Amino acid sequence: MKAYLTRRYMFSASHRLHSEQLSAEENNITYGKCNNPYGHGHNYSLELTVSGPVDEQTGMVCNLADLDGFVREQILERYDHQNLNLLPEFAHEVPTTENLCISIYDIVKRGFRAAHLERVRIEETMMNAFEYAGQET
Amino acid sequence: MVYLTRKAEFSASHYYHNPSFTPEENARVFGKCNNPNGHGHNYTLEVTVKGAVDPRSGFVVDLKQLKEIMSREVLDALDHRFLNKEVPEFLTRIPTTENIAIAIWQRLAPKLKSAQLHRVRVYETPDLFVDFYGEA
């Protein structure tokens, strides 16, 4: 029996939306308040959905302790209370929540083997959410 | 095709234990959830059904009937129960959120007539939920 397990995590980080490929004026028009050079922050809510057959011995898609441990070490320690613009993945990419979804998807996809990653969903605020489920094939 | 979701809540206790594991394995795999005295959660259940809208009633499903089926088949059996000891499915299966979602699907699917069951979602806490779509 295949089931889908979704786990929610929280982290807080700051960022500034600014593209090297746009002029100062274009950045201002495109990103508005988010282009403030001092940056600003959000409480991000991250949802990871993994899937797989429910193991008959444990009743689980994967052990939650393994998923929590992986996310704590690889995601929360990397992003929580950080300035996203200073991280290597955002040296030349704008740290929008779209790009953050893709970065987190790639880390989990590469490193977490206990279940199949279906989807990354991030709420930047209660009013907006972003999802990434890998490249369409 | 239109999808309709009905929500319900139930509170229950459980613990995780596999009798074929040694005590050490049970402790390692299930951690705090292995405490044989059990612990509890306020579960939130979301049942999603799908179907064509009936041109006479404008309904996908009669919500009153769906509510009654959910109450009778699920809530009466699970609410304020010790799942491991009082619910037949969990005498032999571990009452993880995954298995609870599967058991609820198996209870509801044969009882629904006009609409088809699409998804059972069970929240164990606001930070953890399982979806089951009846996939083998």
Task: Report on this structure.
The complex is a heterodimer of chains A (137) and B (136). Chain A is α+β, with helices and mostly antiparallel strands and 137 residues long. Chain A is built from three helices and five strands. Chain A has helices spanning 24-31, 64-79, 97-111, and strands at residues 2-15, 40-53, 82-83, 116-125, 128-132. In chain A, strand 4 (116-125) and strand 5 (128-132) form a beta hairpin. Chain A is elongated, with a radius of gyration of 17 Å. The two termini of chain A are 25 Å apart. Chain B has one domain: Tetrahydropterin Synthase, Chain A (2-Layer Sandwich). Chain B is built from five helices and five strands. Chain B is elongated. The model of chain B has no long low-confidence stretch (mean pLDDT 97). Classes of the chains: A alpha+beta (137), B alpha+beta (136). The interface between A and B is medium-sized, with 19 and 26 residues.
Q: How are the elements arranged and paired?
A:
The complex is a heterodimer of chains A (137) and B (136).
Chain A: E1 2-15, H1 24-31, E2 40-53, H2 64-79, E3 82-83, H3 97-111, E4 116-125, E5 128-132
Parallel strand pairs in A: 1-3
Antiparallel strand pairs in A: 1-2, 2-4, 4-5
Chain B: E1 2-14, H1 23-30, E2 39-51, H2 63-78, E3 81-82, H3 83-86, H4 89-92, H5 97-108, E4 116-125, E5 128-132
Parallel strand pairs in B: 1-3
Antiparallel strand pairs in B: 1-2, 2-4, 4-5
